Amino acid sequence: MDTATTQQIGSVLLQSNGVARTPTQTRRNWSSLFQSSTSHSSDVALKQFDLQIVEGVAQVPMDIIHKGFSDWREYVVGFFLEHRLPYKVVKEFLKKKWRTKSKFEMVSDADLYYFKFHNEEDRCLVLEAGPVFIGGRCFIVIEWSPEIEN
């Protein structure tokens, strides 16, 4: 028999199972996160497509793959030849080293750093400059290609 108890702390109800909620909290569908409360429409639309599974693997339609390739072609990829350095160290060093005219976006995964430049001239200069040394480690910078993900 479940003997869950609820304790109120301010306006939050804390249940003995560790779940916290406000008294007026209602359940919402995940799609409500994408609905705008403003009157103007967004230029982004979600598109549903029929899912096809072949041998247990979902097949992505080719038009979506090609769209992804064209979007990613704008990115520059960086990686260390040896052990990687922390995100913040790399970002701060490259901001000072590259001294770009516009800001650039940087994200990373376990192996690669991805850069999106808001200025094409900055992107070209970074690629032309080539590798840099950060903390004594060689950091290679190249254009994104589908092969880099392997």
TrEMBL record:
It holds the Pfam family DUF4283. Residues 71-148 form the DUF4283 domain. It comes from the Eukaryota. This is DUF4283 domain-containing protein. It comes from Coptis chinensis.
